[in-house]
Amino acid sequence: MADGEVIAVAADDQHRFSKKQTTEIRVLTGLGVEGDAHLGLTVKHRSRVAVDPSQPNLRQVHLIHAELFDELREKGFTVGPADLGENVTTRGLDLLALPRGAVLKLGTDVELEVTGLRNPCSQIDKFQPGLLKAVLDKRANGKIILRAGIMTVVLKGGIVRTGEAITVVLPPPPFFPLEWV
Description:
This protein is mainly beta. It has one domain: M1 Pyruvate Kinase, Domain 3 (Beta Barrel), CATH 2.40.33. It has four helices and 13 strands. The protein has helices at residues 46-51, 66-74, 123-127, 131-134; strands spanning 4-11, 20-22, 24-28, 32-33, 61-65, 88-91, 103-106, 110-117, 136-138, 144-146, 150-156, 158-161, 165-169. The strands form three sheets. The chain has a seven-stranded mixed β-barrel. It has a three-stranded antiparallel sheet with strand order 4-3-12, with no helix packed on it. Residues 20-169 form the MOSC domain. This is MOSC domain-containing protein YiiM.
């Protein structure tokens, strides 16, 4: 039984904020999305490359839950699939509640391991002013909650298409909460 669904897929060979939506993407084992600027064994995000270009790429495939877009629309923002730079937009799956090491099976072939949370940067406010604050929350203890999706690495490659089911396989306990990567 599916835990969620892929409602959109996207890639972009340039380091732009938003990606280009398409009907399918090819995901390569250990690398990420074919033709995407973030493809590779080592980190490709510019700020992280500047610090240490030899870091492992724990951000090969970025996923965001469409429910976030619904919430943002209620706050007056216009945001849809691929706008925030994600490769896969999901529905029906609480991505942010997944533990580190959970495996997402997309369709029949692709397996992605959850590595952590996306840490949204100031570019999000250049896309739409005030959006950065809208994708962050605070717990009662003051700790910031990052809600701009999750990052994964590719365990098993293949094609991901819009409309495919997503199944979650949890790692053995204890479960570790997601932190930004």
